[in-house]
Amino acid sequence: MCGIVGIVGKGPATPRLVDGLLRLEYRGYDSAGVATLVDGHIERRRAEGRIRNLEALLLEQPLAGSTGIGHTRWATHGAPNENNAHPHATEKVAVVHNGIIENFAELKAELVAKGRKFATDTDTEVVAHLLTVLILEGLSPEAAMAAAMHRLHGAFALAVIVAGRPDLLLAARRGSPLAIGYGEGEMYVGSDALALAPLTKMISYLDDGDWAVLTTDGAQVYDQNDKKVAREVRETVLSGALVGKGNFQHFMQKEIFEQPAVIGDTLRSYVNPATHRVTLPELPADLATLKRVQLVACGTSFYAASVARYWIEQLARLPCDVEIASEFRYRDPVLEEGGLSMFVSQSGETIDTLSALRFARGRGQKIAAIVNVPESSMAREADALLATHAGPEIGVASTKAFTTQLAVLAAFAFAAARARGTQSPERLATLAQAIAGIPEKVSGVLAADDRIRAAAKIVAPARDVLYLGRGTAFPIAMEGALKLKEISYIHAEGYAAGEMKHGPIALIAPDVPVIVLAPNDEWFEKTASNVQEVRARGGQVVLFSDKAGIAKIGNLAVAAIELPSCDPFVAPILYSVPVQLLAYYVALIKGTDIDKPRNLAKSVTVE
Length: 607
Ligand code: G6P
Known about the structure:
It is built from 20 helices and 25 strands. It is α/β, with parallel strands linked by helices. The longest helix is centred in the last third of the chain and has 21 residues. The protein binds 6-O-phosphono-alpha-D-glucopyranose.
């Protein structure tokens, strides 16, 4: 899973390919490379690691040419070294690829039998050799592409240049997204419109199974049956400007501190500040009569969905299932015809979630997507889009996207409760007030920054950390543990506080910090008992609670951090913020690469 970009043009390609790759670095950063046509020959520059390594190499060994392709990699097949870095090339073609060629072993055996020599451990190299063999057998590059599409299995986006054909760029999409950009006397391809934003605003998206022939004059798109088709060209709203860190040391830190503003931006789309009336975009289902709602997501988005299940069931008495996308469709779930399935995703491109969305549609579900990237595949394919307005999130560990997802899901739960008449007008009024007040409360949480930074010193030396919470604080405990794992590489588990006695209690020892999320809600007393159990076994508690909670059990903690008191309904949004900051400051102490942690990628487009 990777980012790809291509240009068939008139000006120097390499600097613009590299600029496109920088915008795609969120898709992976194990290696990067570019290939261009120089006097008709394929020339490549590739480097292990970040794009900045490729930039350094290009300074020493510049690459001319006005037609070329580029790639930033998240390794699937083959170690993340220079040899396995894309583009992969033969004497005839160079290929960049995002996705997985599932039948690569079978194709490789066939191509080796034909005398082709492989140089890498990647699945992608079969595409280069397959196209080469087809061209050597006499097919035109275009016909070779059409033939190859019928041989390749799996999910992929491809861009290909051909030796001796500086007028040609081939592209294909099955599963993984691919955008075509229309320039003046130039054409582009990219994994997303953002990669192409500085080059052009005129974009079309390939449909699944499409492949395309791009020349300097335009593009001809073919569908999976090789029939000529036209895909709508639209003007993207994305900006070509690269987002900066401002005065912050890391994007993650900046994004944590942006939360009051972006939660406010998001809520403005759903809550009228004067009347506190909540309005959702038109949904493909009637909330008053709906029998069940299904929430599907991955990673951090899954934890947002997990909080929402408590809200939706408690407030709206609407049965709600939450599922990890990669399990959902393979479980063969029972879905009611006409039911509502909601897909939660920052990127709108995560292949597990996107495939689950398509699966649900195939099972007769109505589809809503809660997505941060408005032109993403999920946003385009859903019946209804509930947008989060977090703005571009650059830090790989998700922060502001998570709390804005929670804000939208809170508005959804509220709207469902109102439609179903399950809450009194008085309770609805307090809930609306609480939702509208979230940005200010989150600002109040950020004021505890220094104390959280100090508490990070307790956590940083640990090898294992336990996070505990009950009710809506339980998914936040899991999210807190995920944040710590992702950026500090410390092993952490998020547990339902009541479940601790059924196993994890065996782990309690003075060197295992226990982070307790204890908002003053209906579960507080029970959580307090669990804190006693931890203390009785010598565990070191870092407590997050409000003034009243700290007055009750603060003495049991090595660090007790006071957060603003709030309506318990919005507590999970407030309590998300300190676990983000704690992970951030621990990672800062450990000196990890906070914005681009090892092995991860911001948007995962392979299964
Ligand atoms: C990746 C990221 C996670 C993210 C998950 C789901 O694994 O590293 O931070 O939560 O994908 O991403 P999505 O864009 O669908 O929310």
